[in-house]
Amino acid sequence: MSPRIARRIFWVLLTVGVVGFSTASCSREEPPPAKRGRIQVSPGEALSYAEQRAPYLRLRTAEAVLPGGWAAAMAPVIVDWSTSSPDSADGHYQVLNLNHGGNPIDGTTVLCSAQVPAGPIQRVEFIVVPLDKLGIHGVVAHAMVRFIFADDTPLTLLDPSGKPLFGDPAIQDLILSWEAWRAPGADFDAIAGLDPTTYGLTLRAYSGPQRFLEDTLQKRDWYATPLELPGGEVGNAELLRVMLALGDGTARRTLEGIYSRTGDDWTRHGPGTDASAATASSQLVRALQSGTSAEDSLTVLPQNELSYQTLQRSCATMALFTIRVAMARLVAPEHRIRLSLDTTIGPLEPWMLAAAKDGRRGLFLQSPKVLKYVFAHRQTVPTRIPGILDRSGLVPHQEGHAIRIHYALTDGPPYGDIRDNLIR
User: Fold this and answer.
1) Are strands 121-130 and 170-171 parallel, antiparallel or unpaired?
2) What are φ and ψ of residue 145, in 5° steps?
3) Total number of domains constituting the chain
4) With contact defined as beta carbons under 8 Å apart, do 31 and 153 qualify?
5) Which of 1, 5, 228, 384 has the most CB within a 10 Å radius?
6) Could you tell me the pLDDT band of residue 396, with boundaries at 50, 70 and 90?
7) What is the pLDDT of residues 77-102, one digit of tens each?
8) Which conformational region is residue 101 in: left (phi greater than 0), alpha (psi within -120 to 50 degrees), or beta?
9) What range defines the domain where residue 403 resides?
């Protein structure tokens, strides 16, 4: 047997084994008892939040829920297009639901507002965060995109009045991360996620330090692949535009669906007797519909693609898809692209639903189809994407090798030595 075939067989067995049992290894055997009951964010409260000039919200991460049971702390990034001007001289986006300032130790999430520069963007990195013990060579991992801004044009945190936050409002980097929207405290189940009705799809926005803190507490390192996009800073800015517009369009249609189904049902089954729930829900839906981007037709997924799916609309496939769309727009900016994942990943296949229904047993029974699919669609495995990007000519090289950066708290942290950043 040749070494190449042996490695291929090892890769096959590793894929099935790790994916099949990742849920068990990453989940708690028994969830800890909740300290408090669920805190439901009513339509009226959500409307008040949305009507603020620069919303700011502090939540109990494991307790705050939106209608339908969705975790409020996982709320997607939304762009306020009415106050954004990405094409002006000092172009920027005003974004809501930026995750910054919360404390995972005490279980709080802070969603705030920020002014994100449309450019210049100094560097873009494709980040892989391994979730298993195999590191960058493993299979189970999370993928996200990091935008690093120039020193003189950082991301600016806003106070509730819409002005720069008093003190030091500057943040040097932004993380955009496609995730499986689920209930508070619910562990992610990759097998259940094969059924697209299990999870919602949310593009979450974090400040870089906030996301690194949360990953570090879970002993997860970052493996970064710098991207060298066509046009340099122009390409970087186009990728940011596509990701924000796609995330915003997906968020608005998802939230519209959530609040279209509340109203009287919320009044009957929600907390208290909020008689204005139906009115607030209707106002929220109208606000979501009226606030869409001028590029809406470019950036809204079809209705049947608005949910998370482990292989087809995951953190990895969605991140790679947005890179491909940005590249297409750079080549032909006048071409109005109709976004559809079918062009790159294919339609939902029956075996996926069968595997999701029967759990690990179903995955084992469907393993030949799983392997065939994964080999045909390597982009479904986050740790394989840096190689795909490299072969596409999008990764810079040094001394003949693609540049890779390993960020860890004790070895090359992205934000300086922790001993210099703490008051000791």
Assistant:
1) unpaired
2) -120, 135
3) 1
4) no
5) 384
6) very high
7) 999 988 898 888 789 999 999 999 99
8) left
9) 3-421
